[in-house]
TrEMBL record:
This is enoyl-CoA hydratase. One of its GO terms (molecular function) is enoyl-CoA hydratase activity. Belongs to the enoyl-CoA hydratase/isomerase family. One of its GO terms (biological process) is fatty acid beta-oxidation. PROSITE patterns: ENOYL_COA_HYDRATASE. Its EC number is 4.2.1.17. Transmembrane segments: none annotated. It catalyses: a (3S)-3-hydroxyacyl-CoA = a (2E)-enoyl-CoA + H2O; a 4-saturated-(3S)-3-hydroxyacyl-CoA = a (3E)-enoyl-CoA + H2O. It comes from the Bacteria. It is an enzyme of class 4 (lyase).
Length: 257
């Protein structure tokens, strides 16, 4: 099994990539497995935060499996495209917060998987790059859109057009990574972060994510209307009633969710 789901404590689940012979390169089966895992996680009401991680020390994911791609005819490549899009859309579409735990190489589609997450934890060994224009294509897993939203238009163009690699220090400086971890420590750091998030109201967490994500590119007035709608949804929920009661009674809340 090249992709598996591991469920820990604190309502946190991990989608773990484990295809060591190809450094987690995404072939047809890997793409289908990622999409299926995301569907399973989406349907699980007990999961409040998701970590996307690797079982390998050397690589988070090195992107598309170019050995497989080299064997595909144009028609076969066109037929594969929906599989690829479903994999990235599966991660991007998860309603609960998502955290990429990056160890080693996050190249091409691997970088795009990380970009599809809400937060990125990079270990000292992390290396990010979008090398697609060097093999005659463009980033197609959301990279052209998600990278610019993270690091700004000009930095995104710099990275995409030059294909240069970015280490953990620079990634943190330019906003490509949100948190740092020691080598081998990305999963543990991501789990610690996910547990903090998962301890909060699951209704409020999802609505906050929706308001921030969906409102980011809206005019301010429209964004504020979206915020109002999400506030209304949380304000009259059982989670809000429990959260206020727990605060007044000085106890840990037990979220209805």
């Amino acid at each position: 099994m090249t992709v598996r789901i591991e469920r820990g404590d604190e309502h946190v689940a991990e989608l773990v990539m484990d295809r060591p012979e190809a450094l987690n390169a995404i072939d047809t089966q890997q793409g289908k497995a990622i999409a299926a895992a995301c569907q399973e996680l989406s349907a699980d009401p007990t999961v409040r935060a998701v970590i996307i991680s690797t079982a390998l020390d050397k690589a988070f994911c090195v992107g598309a499996d170019l050995k497989e791609r080299n064997r595909l005819s144009d028609a076969e490549l066109a037929g594969y495209r929906p599989v690829s899009r479903q994999a990235y859309a599966g991660v991007l579409g998860l309603a609960m917060p998502t955290i990429a735990a990056v160890e080693g190489y996050a190249l091409g589609g691997g970088c795009e998987l990380a970009l599809s997450c809400d937060l990125i934890v990079a270990s000292d060994t992390a290396v990010f790059a979008l090398p697609e224009v060097g093999v005659g294509v463009i980033p197609g897993g959301g990279g052209t859109q998600l990278l610019s939203r993270r690091v700004g238009l000009n930095r995104a163009l710099d990275l995409i057009l030059t294909t240069r690699r970015v280490g953990a220090d620079e990634a943190a400086t330019i906003g490509l990574a949100d948190r740092r971890a020691v080598a081998g420590g990305a999963r543990a750091a991501a789990y610690e972060l996910a547990a903090v998030i998962a301890a909060k109201s699951p209704v409020a967490i999802r609505d906050a994510k929706t308001a921030v994500r969906d409102g980011h590119d809206l005019p301010l007035a429209d964004g504020l209307e979206l915020e109002e709608a999400r506030w209304q949804h949380t304000a009259f929920s059982a989670d809000r009633a429990e959260g206020v009661a727990a605060f007044v009674e000085k106890r840990t809340p037990h979220w209805p969710g």
